[in-house]
Amino acid sequence: MRFKLRTEEHDERNIYLTGNFNSWNPKEEQYRLDQLDPENYSIEIKDEFLPELIEYKFTKGGWENVELDQYGNITPNRKINKSEAQTSDVVRKWRLNWGPFKKEFFPIAEVISEAFYIPQLERHRKIWALLPYDYYVSGKSYPVLYLQDAQNLFNEGSDYGNWEIDKKLSLLTEYGRGDIIIIAIEHGSEDRIKEYIFDNDHIANGSEGKKYIRFITDTLKPFVDENYRTKKDRDNTGIGGSSLGALISIYSGFLYPEVYSKLLIFSPSLWVEPNNNFPMMNFRVPFDMKIYLYGGGKEGSKMVKRIHIFEEYLKQWEKKNLFDFEFRTSINPEGTHSEFYWSQEFPRAIEWLYYNSKENPAEVKSRQKINKN
User: Fold this and answer.
1) pLDDT by residue for the chain (373 residues), tens digit each?
2) CA distances in angstroms from 207 to 90, 202, 217, listed in the order given
3) Which of 109, 174, 319, 359 is the most buried (most CB within 10 A)?
4) Neighbours of 135 (CB within 10 A)
5) Is 158 buried (19+), middle (13-18) or exposed (0-12) by CB count in 10 A?
6) DSSP output for 22-75
7) What are 128's strand-pairing partners?
8) What is the C-alpha separation between 167 and 347, in angstroms, rounded?
């Protein structure tokens, strides 16, 4: 089967073919197209590797760099019968690092409180709610994800950049994956390390993680459930963060599995617990839990190694029938310990944790009305 492609929007990125013949892997070298000239590409694939009905798409190395139509909208799967032996396609535009983002789908960012009282710590904190763009007209209830370090999640001007979760949620909405409420809790500045360390006074000079976890679970979640249309059950509740924020989220999930069923764990500071001595509650019936683990290959020599050791630790706990873990581990060899890479990973994590779907969401129809004027 010969696939031919023409695209006028060209750059230095390679182009790949992906589809139902390679489990929708968006960057597999054996399916990289050959460039014939600045606008034309092609690839030949042996029939034995292809199903009778071929579904496919073109990418520039990932779903964050997938093909779009001329209006910047998502495209449905391309389909062709293998018996036709040849196809010619045109791609008008390409995503670049998940963009462009449609402002009409941006979430509604509300300040729950400029100074939400934390009784467990006797201090106050600014907390945000990011609501689906149509929250006030939909009448629906939504799953919830609690995230740490709100200053670095979507606000411009933060010292380290931000995850741009508002933009990423607008993208997810295009694909029918944006029906989720994010509760973003600002960190405590000089108190951040103490609040995110569970029980290690040597590192934190007075760790307060136990109290912080109880604040989210016992105080904040009941408030959110009372004031917003949330799906309150554990199957629709998750918690997560990056670095130390990821570490305290692990503790939250393990100590309160009756509350959280989903953990978003980016670049966790596992050096604080090198022996993986995480406490876990003992229950008669094991809780199922989905954990999305991400780490970068350039985050130091031990980040990826510690993540894999942590995976093995979880498997040992499974054998004791305390938990039933399902986890996906994503390692970016080029990733550094930074908001940019956490931002890139965020849409993949949300889709896997909350939508239980294949990585390719192509068959979801676009919510964007095409304007041909």
Assistant:
1) 999 999 988 888 999 999 999 999 999 999 999 999 999 999 999 999 999 999 999 999 999 999 999 999 989 999 999 999 999 999 999 999 999 999 999 999 999 999 999 999 999 999 999 999 999 999 999 999 999 999 999 976 566 679 999 999 999 999 889 999 999 999 999 889 999 998 776 676 778 999 999 999 999 999 999 999 999 999 999 999 999 999 999 999 999 999 999 999 999 999 988 777 787 766 667 789 999 999 999 998 899 999 999 999 888 877 776 678 898 999 999 999 999 999 999 999 999 999 965 544 444 444 444 333 3
2) 58, 8, 18
3) 174
4) 19
5) middle
6) TTT-S--GGGBPEEEETTEEEEE--GGGS-SEEEEEEESSSGGGBEE-TTS---
7) 111, 184
8) 10
Residue with tokens 């092609």: 42
Token digits for 362? 């192509």
